[in-house]
Amino acid sequence: MMINTAYILIPALPFAAFLIIALSGRTLGEMSHRLAIPAVSTSFILSVLACVDVYQNGARSIPLYTLIKAGNLTVEAGLYIDAITVLILLLVTGVSSLVHVFSSRYMQADPRYARFFAVIALFTSAMIMLVMGANLLMLFICWEIMGLCSYLLISHWARRPSACDAATKVFLVNAIADVGLVFGIYLTWATFGTLDIQAVLSAAPNYADQTVNLLGFLGLNLQVPILSVIALLLFMGPIGKSAQIPLHVWLPFAMEAPTPVSALIHAATMVKAGVYLLIRMGPLYLLAPTIMTVVAIIGGLTALFAAVVALTQFDVKRILAYSTISQLGFMVLACGVGAYGAAIFHLLTHGAMKSFLFLSAGSALQSLGGAHHGEHDEHGEASRSGVSRQHVPLYIGALMMALIPPLIIFWGPYEQLWALSHVVQARVVFWILGLATVFFTAFYLFQGVMEVFKSPGRIDWTTRFRSGVMKPQLFSASLLLGLIPMTAGLAAFLILTWSGLHAFIAPALPGATADPAIHLPSGWSPMSLIPGIAVAIAGWATAFYFHSVPAHSSASWSDRKKTLYVFFLNQGYFDQVYEAMVIRPYLRLASWLWQTFDVRLIDGPSTRAVNASFNAATGLSKVIAFEKADAQRVSYALMILLGILMLLLVLAEEIEIYLLG
Amino acid sequence: MEIPASMFGISHLVSWIVLTPIIGLVIVAFLRHAEVIRWVTLGVTLLALGLTLGLWANFDYTAGGIQFVDRMPFPGGFFQYKVGVDGISLPLVFLTTFIIPLCVLVSWRIENIKAFMMLILLVELAVTGVFTAMDAFLFLIFWEIAMIPMYFVIAFWGGLKRTQAAIKFLLFSAVGSLLLGLGIEALHHFGGDTFDMQALARVTYAPNIQFWLFLPLFLGFAIKVPMLFVHGWIADAHGEAPAVGHVILSGLLLKMGAYGLIRFCLSILPEATAAFAPYLMWLSVLAILYGGMLAMAQSTIKRFIAYSSVAHLGFITLGIFGLNQEAIQGAVFQMVSHGMTMGTLFLAAGMLYDRTHNPMVNAYGGLYQVMPRFTALLTIFVMASIGLPGTGSFIGEFIILVGTSYHSYILVLFALIGVVVGAVYMLWMFQRLVLGPVTPYVATLPDLTRREMVAVIPMAVVVLAIGVYPNVLLNVIHTSVTTLAQNFAQVQPLPIVALFIAP
User: Fold this and answer.
1) pLDDT digits over A266-298, tens only?
2) How distant is the alpha carbon of residue A316 from its chain centre?
3) Triad A29, A32, A33: Cα angle to 5°
């Protein structure tokens, strides 16, 4: 009982903090963080305890209350906690606590300080509930609340029109993706008669042979396995939330948010919700091999495309955004080939790593921008920000980031990734995709670092603390965040973490209890590390070469090369295509419908009728000598007369009976 | 006519709820001081709310039929006074008595206070009457009464083009009432010379008679909802009405149409309804998309919300004509949720308009800095209107679509696209009004007063409460809808032509 309460407190504490801060309005003001930080930190401590509990006692489910009961539809709100949940909980609450601490300094003197803390507390609570929720409806509810928080935070500096536009765009792109997700949830309910995730997953094998006619409404017959349809529709959610092609366009826009938000929501936690969904629904996906391939292809394409785009960008935050997209693509790729352990591992490492990068980028940019960071264009361009001393955390982070992908991608966990794809061609494609992405990742990260550190100087930490650029609070947060991946990386290097982690999550992983044909190997072969490292080194070398040889400037490029460069520089023209193909036609259609259809066809006759009645009344008033009578009142009187007449007509029979006995 | 032993007992609660506004009306008629009038009206409407809560507390969740029936035949005898509530009407009575006190608060300082308050009380009488009447003729009387105050509210307290809007409203209403009157008279004729709705529902009508009964009744209610193609009046009426007019119109009057569809078409004419339902579901989905797209093309705030209202009511009619437990239950749930959400959105638009008297969306911007409280509340209701989880609308739409999925997945898909269309226009409006740089036009606007906050916050609380714990409302609706839905489980849906030529 006590344990259940403790579990409920994990999401409840940040939610309580949100409620109190939101309701107290401006009275709490700059004190808001004193409420939010303890709440979230306590959640973190409880998550650590939860981790221990799950390690000792295994998975646990906690029923809460009946959410909906309508006919056959019954949804019970409840929590389900297993190894996957607690690991992501650790990441969410850990990163969130640090971001809270960081923000208390970063957001100082912001006029909407309390609002900021209310929303990030709400976000933390929603993300916690998302990973703890026992059914798909709760997952979706939290999914959308996170979207709302994202919207509110991107538009935080609402004076900037670009921020407002970005917020709306981000929300809408996600809304489009969510149509698929909700539709998938309806279909899940219609197929399984329940939305409880564990019940669905355990019942899924019984439906493996069931098909559905997709073109029934057209009178055609196209039989498709029902599980594939559900899996594909549910995958729409991750395509939106985890920024996969073709809906990845929102993530760069999301960088309009204050930097701590970019760290918390748009790199470390919220974007992982899609990957979490794929992992959680894994057993269902394993039964739909076609969709697994689709997932893998989209993930791989995203990873590669975003890495190349990141190569061509100048804006620090945009580079980080595309790097996030690329890494998310990797996680989705891992899910697509059934390497769920690898996906979780990458999810955790990347979450800690990327939030560190963002926070250090934020502190660096803040020190450049001065106190009124919010009101200026916050995007520092990497090429211009040569003030090197303030970028040490960024430097460390970027170095780690450049170092880590080849290490973790081609080592331990990813052994699964390559071993699992049974088809040889597929394996080759994934190899190529993976290696190419590693190459470009190494390339752009190294390039980014070198751009920033054009003139490396001696770092005088004492001055930095004293000058207030780097407050101890800020520094410790950055340091802590840096320590997590560093420790993780080192421990990982000693393989101990992987086998330990694998032993911990193995029972919870999809496919663990499935038939032995899709057995997940947990072994590790050092041989697979070699090509990865080699490609990474090649990437670094190329970056260094291009950087150190100024002659290789764009002027000397061939035309085709230039075209390619411009293509990627413009992020593949996705935004422009959407603008021209979707947004403008939609607006034109809306205005056409209104002007031509509604005003003329539907409103026209009634307006004419109104005018006619008006004229009739005026005419009548002249005839019956109410010369000065207000036409409107006469018309009203006419209406009443008409009504009474009608009433009499209706009741003629009864009145007759009544009068005549 | 016997006088019951306990005039004030629980058995007469419904009558008391309907009577309270009349008593208030009479008292206010004799009062002179504006301040006294305000407080008396507020007191009376709060009393009605208290009585409704008492009714709710004594409501038997497990009984499907009409409860708290109170009847009194009139000497003449062709119709009777008969009221009562079931799980479908109780939430709507609650919605009415909940919204009216808030309307009183909002129009605290309006001109011609006495006339206005009397009209509001008249509205409360009429709407509670419509939701509780169990006699078709009584229903028609209350229905007619509800039009009158609305006409005056638009015509005297409205905007620039108020005269035309009011007449248009009246014209549509009169046509609707005419059809309704015809339908009810025909029901009376074929249903064994009675207006008693329970008795009418027990009669089995031949399919071809049902067809002719269904048409006028359906059209009469559809105009009031309004369903697509008969929505011509709504944009004008909303465009010109004062703040409280919106709330009454969208929160209460439109719900009367939807309620009528359930009470008459579904309960009394199941075969005809089942025959028409598939087409009406498509029409509803079309309304969701059409209303959403048209909202996008508007440049004034009120017309914008009016079209979005068409879209939202599409969801409600989609649920009603889903004809199964989930869909109808969701529709009734959504009626309450929509009444609160859209009512408040209109209220917000009205508050803004009352401050500036400028209807154009483009004139606004950056309200978040000038009116932070307003912004916070608007955020909640805009999100509720989009159907964001955590608010009542999400639950309502979700259940409706679960019910719809029994019929067709294509419908569900289109409705979901409609949700996105809804999100597009809502966010578009929200961004232009609230975000961005402050326009000089709004720089000096005062934020919400304490009185306005008191009026809006209860709505927010209800919208969020039924979003987080929807069962509190679903439980009330459940059993009554079950009885209704069981009817349809046995009905063999005929094609319309077959219905027409069947004996």
Assistant:
1) 777 888 888 999 888 888 888 887 888 888 888
2) 20
3) 140
Which of A73, A176, A634 has the most B C-beta neighbours within 10 Å, making it the best mutation to test the interface with B?
A73
Helices B450-468 & B325-356, crossing angle to 10 degrees? 160
Model pTM greater than 0.95? no
DSSP assignment, residue B437? S
- Chain A, 168-197: which have a CB under 8 Å from a chain B CB? 168, 171-172, 175-176, 179, 182-183, 186-187, 189-190
Q: How many CB atoms lie within 10 A of CB A164?
A: 26
Asked if the C-beta of B115 comes within 8 angstroms of chain A's C-beta atoms, the answer is no
- Average per-residue pLDDT in chain B? 83
Whether the pLDDT of residue A529 is over 70: the answer is no
Domain range for residue B233?
Answer: 10-501
DSSP 8-class letter at A271: T
Instruction: Tell whether A140 lies on the interface with B, counting CB pairs under 8 A.
Output: yes
Is residue B373 a part of any domain in this protein? yes
Q: In the numeric block, which tokens belong to residue A219?
A: 């009178």
Closest of B289, B71, B116 to residue A593, by C-alpha:
B289
Phi-psi region of A71 (alpha: psi -120 to 50; beta: other; left: phi over 0): left
What burial letters (b/e) apply to B389-427, b meaning 16+ CB within 10 Å?
A: bbbbbbbbbbbbbbbbbbbbbebbbbbbbbbbbbbbbbb
Cα A545 from Cα A552, distance rounded (Å): 9
The secondary structure of chain B in percent helix, strand, coil, rounded to multiples of 5, reads: 75, 5, 20
Does B389 sit within 8 Å of A65, measured CB to CB?
A: no
Any domain includes B30: yes
**H-type alpha helices, A222-288:** 226-241, 250-253, 259-263, 272-280, 282-286
Torsion over CA: B220, B225, B226, B227 (sign): negative
B28-58 per-residue burial string, b: 16 or more CB within 10 A, e: under 16: beebeeeeebbebbbebbebbbebbeebeee
Instruction: Tokens 């751009």: give the residue.
Output: A451
Distance CA B69, CA B217 (A): 24
Which two tokens mark B414? 């289109």
Within a domain: B4: no
Question: Tell me, what's the pLDDT at B469?
Answer: 86
Q: Judge whether B1 lies within some domain.
A: no
Give the up-direction half-sphere exposure of residue B218: CA atoms within 13 A in the CB hemisphere. Answer: 24
| More reliable by pLDDT, B37 or B109 | B37
Task: Please give the Cα distance from A345 to A354 (Å, whole number).
Answer: 14
